[in-house]
Amino acid sequence: MSTEPASIDSIIAEISKSHNVTIGRDDPILVLNTLNEMLLKRTAETQELQLKRFNEEIQLMISQLDNASKEKAEKIISSALTASRQTINSEMNTQIDIFNSSIRSSISDMKNEIISASSTEKAVITNMAKINLAASVITFLTVLVLCIFFR
């Protein structure tokens, strides 16, 4: 029924050639061929449908895995970024503390230098004051001696 005449003729020719038996177009054996073709067609349709469903399920699973992978990758990247930020902030705070300590040390050194320079200058000024006082006393005594002699 569903078998085309050309296909039936080729089947008759193949049987004749292979088995040396001649059959007609109305032979009941050809009913089995038609039945076989119908079953093969149904089986192929069923397998095609199952394959299509299987493909859809695989596509869904791949999509779910893809989404899950993206989520995990985003979590990993987010965690790494957070850790990097914390490390950067920690290092930056450490470097700021070191810098502040260095500045304080430099300021303290400069303050001590200024204080010691002032002490040195004070000593120089004190010595100059002593010399000036001695010179003034000598001048006064000289004027006093001159006043006493020239009076």
- Ends apart, CA distance between termini: 171 Å
Over all CA atoms, what is the radius of gyration?
A: 58 Å
Share in helix: over 70%
Specify the structural class.
mainly alpha
Looking at the structure, what is the overall shape? Answer: rod-shaped
Written as H for each helix and E for each strand, in order along the chain, the element string is HH
Instruction: Name the average pLDDT.
Output: 87
- Number of distinct beta strands: 0
Number of helices: 2
Low-confidence stretches: none
Hey, roughly how much beta strand do the residues contain? Answer: under 5%
Q: Biggest sheet, in brief?
A: none
Task: Give a structural overview.
- There is one protein chain.
- The chain has helices at residues 5-19, 29-149.
- It is mainly alpha-helical and 151 residues long.
- The chain has a domain at 5-109.
- The longest helix is centred in the middle third of the chain and has 121 residues, at 29-149.
- It is rod-shaped, with a radius of gyration of 58 Å.
- The chain starts with a helix and ends with a helix.
- The mean pLDDT is 87.
